[in-house]
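Practice problem: predict the structure.
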Amino acid sequence: MSEQNTEELIRADAHAVQQLALVTRLCPANSFIAAGFVRNRVWDALYEPKPEAPVADVDVVFYCTKDDRPERDYALEAVLKQHDPSTNWQVRNQARMHKARGRDPFTSLEDALMHWPETATSIGVRLDNTGKMHSIAPFGFDDLAHHILRITPAAKAAGAHIFEKRLKEKGWVGRWPRVQVIR
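Answer:
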């Protein structure tokens, strides 16, 4: 599964394309939909029948140091919800998310994604105004493509407890029994 295959898989889902278009239209420039939005589609496609798991939320991420108030994120969530009420939107400006874990400030969106718990979750996609899809993947697409759930170096250095907690709470091994977990 390459970056191109990932794009094809996402484009085959009309609702996903609508969600990406909404983010392009309503959110700050260079906002991406990340996390399970990408990973779940790719890994679900590896199974027949496809796992029937509800979509927990759609994570929209961007990076803006000029206005990193949480209220801005919540206002964006409300606007997105007005346009797509069936989706649980979660918008987070990554310029302030270092505070939640007591880290040094992130320098970019890519830097922030490098601090997420899993490599295959640290992938985002967006559409530009012409409809071209762009991706951000600081660890590349290999783990996503090879069905590997790997802790990121930053998460490992901070202590694997967050990774382990997520692994247990999210039920990923039950959903994707062939996933290879690398701690």
